[in-house]
């Protein structure tokens, strides 16, 4: 029976510790790898579902323009974490708006349900990209810019209310949602 082996030299412990530190990402590193698997078709699929869900109204709509302007400065970022927060904020607002019980009767329920499921799934993946204390992290972000997203979607809600949730008002919301999906696509390209 061989005797007890000699303990490894201290240099091995130092090398293992250094390797472990190199391979472990910093606590504040932003990792959003689960998101990248879904980004390639998310925007296209969402636009297709939106098109399927919300056919044009049966009667022609008068030209209605909501006085809502999107804060395009949010799209001009190279910061992957800010882009992810902005995309998450947009997705959450889109989900809230499109899940409204006052959507028009001519919208297809199955396609709407599929779109809402896809939005929720993508929201879940984005939320997983942030640490458990994401609310604290979110508050440190560009607060004024995210307040302007809240203002943008608040304007859309007021537009719907002022037009008594008419099919034509919802058609305008559908166009705004289409533009939001294009913005989300631009933001997810920043996150790659």
UniProtKB/TrEMBL annotation:
UniProt signal peptide: 1-29
Key words of the record: Antiviral defense, Cytokine, Disulfide bond, Secreted, Signal
UniProt-listed GO biological process terms: defense response to virus; immune response
Compartments (UniProt record): Secreted
One GO CC annotation: extracellular space
PROSITE patterns on file: INTERFERON_A_B_D
GO function terms (MF aspect): cytokine activity; cytokine receptor binding
Pfam families hit by this protein: Interferon
Family annotation (SUPFAM superfamilies): 4-helical cytokines
InterPro entries: 4_helix_cytokine-like_core (IPR009079), Interferon_alpha/beta/delta (IPR000471)
Role: Has antiviral activities.
Similarity comment text for this entry: Belongs to the alpha/beta interferon family.
Protein name per UniProt: Interferon
Record organism: Aythya fuligula
